[in-house]
């Protein structure tokens, strides 16, 4: 009895102590403040809110923006269908499908890889809403309910002012989008493999983001199939010489889009036909995979998708290794991705760096930052791929570099963008203590005061040296020159104009480097959701023998 009583007494005492420990409130240490990449990311996403066209949602969060261009498409006698929605490209009100589609592909790619990070910082719903805003619009620009199409919309609005005269258009006039009253012509194309394949990539990537919404995901896949088929059958560039598209977003080739679009189509559908296209030796050759001496080799842009496609297909080789008949080209892409990563390192002199440390991927020409953030994203993402594959680094010739070298490069470039540069200037509007105050942007530069300023009425706001009355939160401006100099002048778009494509690259780079307390690295499996097993499932074992 004494033994039993002692055991019960000790048990009750321990239980009492544990109850007190649980009931007494504990002071948990507060979570660490968000790092600068997270803070900048919140702002960078808001730029897309400011670029929305059409009827804005109540929670858009940009007080100086309102509904705009509500008759797009309907007012064009040759089209007569609603093209309301989408995003304005830059400081103007033109909707260019080519860079818009690429921007949606990039945002989707970043969500597929880093969904947990977006969720942890409270931005997952926001970025998915932005992607859907873009894909909803893209679905309007062709017959998305058909399996075969013969045309797609290339852009809404006109920017060419070289023909003389004072014909109002989106570049001649300086107006808030809400006040536009001049005609906005629609440009269609009937042989535009590059645009069609990029739009297919955008819808295919988004279908993976929205895979839990089966109806919408299936709709995106169906549209992507029709677009990619159209692009493969009706060969041609979307930007013929002399066209508006050629002036502002000229496409140099469509072969890289065939590889890029084919890769995304494969991941969205699991259909090996698309992988066969993306990995065809002739396709790689035409896309420039062997142009190693080209000064632009490895520069990932809205025009040249090959570097991104090679990283994406290297992912397939690292994690699934599909083998024959894809292995030869996949190994080539993997090796060339390694070479591109080497080219980003200063010691190999593939690209010059400014004295302040910015890589000059466009060789000293204006508007450099869009290329810088894309390279930072690829480097950071590839380092995560290698880590996830338990590969500590990669070789540049005989020299081995760890994945941390790639992250250091990516961080150095983003740090430059965010203010670690000779001017101590953040090139993201609204971030930091010193940032551009005169972004080349019509809506941001004209007061939101209830007064309608006509086509020429806004010129005084364009020319004034005063800061913009509306802050274009999160906009990545074009950037400094090759000497790290910057002119905060509204009329000089080579320094101060932001674009959708640049901000998409910025968002992707920032989320890849955010340092938050969730499972680090990439989501290895979601992108492969539709991909069937690489090898046939073995048959079940025979049933037990019965005598």
Automatic annotation (TrEMBL):
What PROSITE patterns does the database record attribute to this sequence? Answer: GH9_2, GH9_3
Annotated Glycoside hydrolase family domain residues: 37-510
What the entry lists under InterPro entries is as follows: 6-hairpin_glycosidase_sf, 6hp_glycosidase-like_sf, Glyco_hydro_9, Glyco_hydro_9_Asp/Glu_AS, Glyco_hydro_9_His_AS
Location of the active site:
440, 488, 497
Task: Show the catalytic activity.
Answer: Endohydrolysis of (1->4)-beta-D-glucosidic linkages in cellulose, lichenin and cereal beta-D-glucans
Keyword terms: Carbohydrate metabolism, Cellulose degradation, Glycosidase, Hydrolase, Membrane, Polysaccharide degradation, Transmembrane, Transmembrane helix
Q: Work out whether the entry's keyword set contains Membrane.
A: yes
Pfam families xrefs: Glyco_hydro_9 (PF00759)
Annotated transmembrane regions: 6-24
UniProt GO molecular function: cellulase activity
Asked if the keyword Membrane belongs to this entry, the reply reads yes
Gene Ontology process terms (BP): cellulose catabolic process
What family, per the record?
A: Belongs to the glycosyl hydrolase 9 (cellulase E) family.
> What is the protein named?
Endoglucanase
Task: Report the source organism.
Answer: Oryza sativa subsp. japonica (Rice)
